[in-house]
Design brief:
This protein is an alpha+beta fold. About 20% of the residues lie in helices and about 25% in strands. It has 3 domains: about 130 residues, Immunoglobulins (Immunoglobulin-like), CATH 2.60.40.10; about 150 residues, Endonuclease, Chain A (2-Layer Sandwich), CATH 3.30.870; about 200 residues, Endonuclease Chain A (Endonuclease, Chain A, 2-Layer Sandwich). Strands 3-10-9-8-4-5-7-6 form an 8-stranded mixed β-sheet, with helices on both faces. A 7-stranded mixed β-sheet has the order 11-17-16-15-12-13-14, with helices on both faces. Strands 19, 20, 23, 24 and 25 form a 5-stranded antiparallel β-sheet that branches. Helix 1 packs parallel to helix 2. The longest helix is centred in the N-terminal third of the chain and has 18 residues. It is globular, with a radius of gyration of 26 Å. The termini are close together. The N terminus is likely disordered.
């Protein structure tokens, strides 16, 4: 069975050897939960959670999006009713996005419109302006019969409701949302179904190669807040932000006219309250202030570090230094010093470059707070003055920022997912190491933090044995015997009803552990049969599954694939 590792086969009396892995997109890859052939997700929840999260690189976000589009298209085709006007049509898709270029999504939106769904696209006007001829979404959809308004300004209420493509002109700012809403009657019950997709992920082909997040939200109250904010922006009216302390998930919006709770104020409050851990992974990171302008982000993070909080930062080097993928200065950007100030404050800070393409990025806009009571800040908003404003100026951009109290929302599931993804990003870009400490040393230090989460790893091994043989897992951790230095390994058991499947009791390992192991058979006379081939390498990181506290691993040794 193939192994994603280049370590030599472990001898009968092994000693631990560092493992290396193949390169991916110009950086050294770290095996995720699929590092061992046959690793399985074990999501068996009986009800859909209020918020689900997927990450890229990969097709996870695209699959989530196409699934929602297919669901509403299938529901509409099963409904024989006809509706006289768009306003009467209960089948509605609305995209409020910075950009839209993915051909599969465009094709599905065209299909949805032809199936009788009212589709409306709100797109940042600068992204589809005539000086960007490579962006053809408007021409493609207009040729498919979509109506189009070159600006949202001056439209009547009916035009705002019914026009299918509306360009949003934010003046000096950006229409930077990434929200997609789907509303339709449930085919079984007739009740209105509403789903929201939102995150850092634009519906663009290049986004699938980025580090991104996309969330599926089914909470009606949260969806209503997005809807109200989008309608306010479309009508040129102020957004009214509100905060519910009892809610597991809140959202705050930024715009030149947004009122109520400010994003930066809430961020600074969370930093001041945190006692354990703050991990920041933000595409564009600036030394922002709160609305009073009294303190700056770097000062707040330095104060958190001084009181014992583990603080680390990852940001995109192209944005931090104003350079392109090859490190050449960009004429439209400048070198920012926020990352230099963070390092000067003793905060491990990594500038990374996603080299999968000329326009790819570490594009997350997220932070993890805490271990015991995990909170996540995420969604579409960068941590910039344009997004969040300052004492002297209002924000220029329209952005959304989600605040997830993960302990309330899902027993820290989302927090664990983001924590695992953060470690994955550190390892993915470790060879670049632009300014931060050696990544594996940092991770080992972090794993020593009191309260660091552990993941239950369940091993299921197919092994055909002779009478009297026992089956063990041996590896590079104390739980697996430290290659024989701290014990015989982890014994697996079987019986007549499950043979040749051998299972072990759950092993709890710190999140982020790089586990190397082999399956062995111990003979009654003490001889050991070693599993042939290379060591298996498994990073105990299930951020990309729906079971962040359990990881199921299947392996074969002289068994059927």
């Amino acid at each position: 069975m193939p192994r994603r590792v280049t370590t030599p086969q472990v001898p009968a009396v092994p000693s631990p050897t560092p493992a290396t892995t193949p390169s991916v997109n110009g950086t050294t890859a770290t095996p995720a939960t699929t590092a061992v052939s046959g690793v399985r997700d074990a999501f068996t929840s009986s009800a859909a959670p209020a918020i689900e999260t997927v990450f890229t690189p990969g097709n996870q976000a695209l699959q989530m999006e196409l699934k929602e589009l297919d669901a509403i298209i299938n529901a509409r085709r099963a409904d024989a009713r006809q509706f006289a006007t768009p306003g009467e049509n209960p089948y509605r898709i609305q995209y409020a996005v910075y950009n839209l270029t993915d051909p599969q999504v465009i094709a599905k939106l065209t299909e949805a419109s032809r199936a009788g769904i009212h589709v409306q696209l709100l797109i940042d006007s600068a992204q589809i302006a005539p000086d960007r001829p490579w962006n053809t979404v408007v021409d493609e959809l207009k040729s498919a019969g979509f109506s189009h308004a070159e600006t949202h300004k001056g439209l009547t209420e009916a035009q705002r409701r019914d026009t299918q493509i509306i360009e949003i002109d934010m003046g000096r700012g950006l229409f930077h949302l990434k929200a997609r809403t789907f509303r339709y009657p449930d085919p079984q019950t007739g009740a209105l179904k509403e789903t929201l997709l939102t995150g850092s992920h634009n519906p663009q082909e290049s986004a699938h190669k980025n580090n991104e997040s996309l969330h599926r939200v089914t909470d009606p109250g949260l969806i209503a807040k997005y809807t109200a904010a989008i309608e306010a922006l479309k009508a040129g009216k102020p957004i009214q932000n509100s905060w519910d302390e009892a809610a597991p998930v809140n959202v705050l919006f930024t715009s030149p006219t947004a009122k109520g709770t400010r994003v930066a104020d809430k961020l600074f409050s969370m930093i001041r309250d945190e006692k354990e851990l703050i991990f920041i992974s933000v595409f564009t990171l600036r030394n922002i202030t709160n609305s009073e302008g009294r303190t700056k982000l770097v000062d707040e993070l330095a104060a958190a570090k001084a009181r014992g909080v583990k603080v680390t930062v990852v940001t995109d080097q192209k944005q931090a230094d104003g350079v392109d993928v090859d490190g050449n200065p960009r004429p439209d950007s400048s070198d920012d010093d926020t990352e230099d100030l963070l390092r000067a404050a003793g905060i491990p800070t990594y500038e990374v470059t996603n080299r999968a393409g000329p326009h790819t990025a570490m594009h997350l806009k997220s932070a993890v707070f805490g271990l015991t009571d995990m909170k996540v800040v995420t969604d579409a908003g960068n941590w910039t003055f344009s997004a969040m404003g300052s004492k002297a100026s209002r924000p220029k951009n329209a952005e959304s920022v989600l605040f997830i109290d993960s302990k309330k929302a899902d027993g820290n599931k989302t927090g664990m997912q983001y924590l695992g993804e953060y470690l994955s990003i550190l390892r993915r870009y470790a060879p670049q190491n632009h300014g931060g400490p050696e990544v594996e040393n940092l991770i080992r230090d972090l794993q020593a933090t009191p309260g660091w989460p552990k993941v239950k790893v369940n091993f299921d091994v197919i092994a055909r044995t002779n009478w009297g043989q026992d089956v063990y897992l041996v590896g590079n951790t104390p739980e697996l015997g430290g290659w024989g230095q701290t014990g015989p390994g982890l014994k697996l058991d079987t019986d007549s009803s499950t043979y040749p499947s051998w299972k072990a009791k759950d092993v709890e390992l710190p999140l982020g552990t790089t586990l190397e192991y082999k399956v062995i058979k111990r003979n009654p006379d003490g001889r050991i049969d070693w599993e042939p081939g290379q060591n298996a390498v498994l990073v105990v990181d299930n951020s990309r599954t729906q079971t962040p506290k359990t990881l199921d691993v299947r392996d074969d040794f002289n068994g059927d694939s």
